[in-house]
Amino acid sequence: MTIKFGTDGIRGPVESKITPEVCLRIGHAAGIVLKEMGWETVLIGKDTRVSGYMLESALQAGFIAAGVNVRLLGPLPTPGVAYLTKSLRNQFGLVISASHNDYLDNGIKLFSGSGEKISREAEKKIEKLLAGELKPVPTAQLGKARRFDESGDRYIEFCKSTVPDEVSFESLRIVLDCAHGACYKVSPSILEELGAEVISLGASPDGYNINHECGSTSPEKAQEEVIKQRADFGIALDGDGDRVVLIDNKGNILDGDDIMYILAYANPNRTGPWSGIVGTTMSNLGFEDGIKKLGYKFKRADVGDKHVSQMLQKEGWLLGGEPSGHIICRDLVSTGDGTIAALKVISSLLMLEKEPADILRNYTKMPQININVDVQNKDILSDASIQQSIKEIESDLTVGRVLVRPSGTENKIRVMVESDDEPTAKKYAEDIAKMFIS
After folding, report:
1. Tens digits of residue pLDDT in 349-364
2. Is 99 a known active-site residue?
3. In a domain? residue 403
4. Residue 161: inside a domain
5. Does 182 share its domain with 306?
6. Whether the predicted model's global pTM rises above the 0.90 cut
7. CA angle 58, 60, 65 (to 5 degrees)
8. 279: helix, coil or strand?
9. Which of 51, 97, 99, 218 is catalytic?
10. Domain harbouring 176, CATH code
C-alpha cells in the first residue's frame, strides 16, 4: 500500500484513496509512531463531510489497536484541533478534512503536541509502516475512546480572548460565510458573543454541500450579501476553517496578501520577531515590494502553510501566509486560522480607525493570472519538452515570474504567470496551460 503525505497531510477521493481500510491503517501506523514520540492520546476532529463519521470510526479503531487513547471532538475547525492539542498537553491531534475540496474528497491532517503539523521525519516513519503488516497490541494494552464535548466552547473562548479589551464589535454588522463546513457553529458564536450582528451564510451543512459555491474559494455570495445588507465586513472561511477571505464594506474582496499587508501596516514594531514576514512562491511581487517598503524583510516559502510555519520558526518571525488565505499569526496561534486572522484584521482596523482601502492603496499588485489544469498524472510536468517551453516563455518576460507546479492536494497542474502587462500574463498562462491538455 503506497500512501504519501502531500503539502497538507493525506488527501484524495473517498471512494478510491481515503477509504475506511486506508484510514484504519493510517490510525494504526500514526498511533505507533506518535506513541513512540511520547504521546498516548489523540484528539480527533472533523469537518462536515458525509464521509467523516465513517472515517472517524476507522481511524478510531486503528489508534485503539496501536494502544492509543482517543478523544472524539466532533465537528471542529482544523485550527481548533491544533489549539486543543497544545492547550490540553501531552496529546496529539488529527483532523478529518479535505479543506477546500468538495464532499467527494476527504483527508487526514496530523498535529504534534505543540499544535503544529507533524514533521516530515514523522510522516516518513508513518509511510514506512503503512507499507508493511500491522499488528494490534495485546488486548490488555488497547486504547480507550470517549467523547470530549467541551471542544467547541473552549475554542470559542480562546478566539474571543485574542481581541483586545479596548476593541468593541458591538456596532458591527458582519456577513459570515462558513462554507457549510467545520466553522458553522463556532464562528457565528464567536462574533455574536463579541457583540457583532452576524448574517450567516453557509451554516447549514448536509454532508454534501461543503465548499459548494460558497466560502473562501467562492466568496461572491458573501460579497453580494455585504453590499445588500450594507455590512461593515464580510468573512468567507473554507471547509475546515484554516483559510479566510475578507470583504470590505464596498464589496472589495481581500485575499491573503491583502490581509497580511493590513496586519503588517497596523503593527508598530519592525524589530526582532516583527522584523520580517513570510509569504510563498505564490505571493504577488507587488505585495513583496509593499512589505519591504513598510520596513520588513520578506522571504518566500514553498506553497503550504506547513512550509510557511517552518520558515517562520527558522527566522523567528511571527506573521506569514498565502494568497489563498492561510494566515499564520504566531503571536496568537501555531497554525493557519481563518477566524483568528479575521478577528485580528478587524480589530486592527478599528484601532487605526481606517478602512481597508485607506491602507491597501499604499501598495499595487502586479497582474497575476492563475489557471488550474486537470490532469491524469501530475508527472507530466517533468516532461523535458514542456520544461523547455516553460523556460522559453519565462525568458521572454522582461518583468514578472512564471510558476508551474503540481498541486499537493489534487490531480491538477497549477499555472501562475505574473507580468507588468496583464494581457501578456494572460496569454502566456494560457499557452502553458494548453501544454497539459491532451
Report:
1. 999 999 999 999 999 9
2. yes
3. yes
4. no
5. no
6. yes
7. 100
8. strand
9. 99
10. 3.40.120.10
